[in-house]
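name: query_chain
kind: protein
chains: 1
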Amino acid sequence: MKNLINKKNLLLDLDGTVYDDLEAVFGQVSKRMTEYISKRLNIDLIKAKELQTNYFYKYNTSLNGLMIHHDIIPEEFLKYVHTIDLSFMKEDKVMRNELEKLDMEKFIFTNGSAEHAENILTHLGIYDLFGRDKVFDIKDAGYVPKPEARTFDLMVKKFGINPKETIYIEDIAKNLSIGYERGCTTVWLINDEHFGKMDSDKDYISHKIENLSLFLKEIRLLKSQ
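structure:
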């Protein structure tokens, strides 16, 4: 943990990282993806779900596969799948307190859309701590998802950060690979999601944590010594 004291930047994934209940959010997104694929490609829901899953595993996002094989319009897709109900999501005052007190620059790095990030972060009561300028979304990436090296490098360029001064936190372990290669201190948020925990035993994971807010508190206390 001592190596975290001099870090200047906090790079956070969005879904499954800044909030806990991935199924409550991404369950809705996934269902709408299936509906969209079914309607757009004129196939039944079962085949649409199979295609969605296969593309996700092969291309890191279902959208990436749909663009490659079916010329799907990404903006249309993202608007449809991210039209979800977040009324259940409560403000996370504990996380807000830790983010506010932590003397680091804070950024969001997501394979989702900026609009989805704004929606999530607003419901959590922390969007004002970021804003659009501190969110790197899939459109910024040219729709090429993490963990592609080009996407990571575009993010670094947009934010003007030094990876060696950055703590990078993800719930999908394999997404941390390029961050580690570029010099980030990488942190995997432990979870039981099949895709999330794949490769979670790799050397490119510097730390493993169970609670984001508690980890942020530990960093803050280290820096105050």
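note: The chain is about 45% helix and 10% strand.
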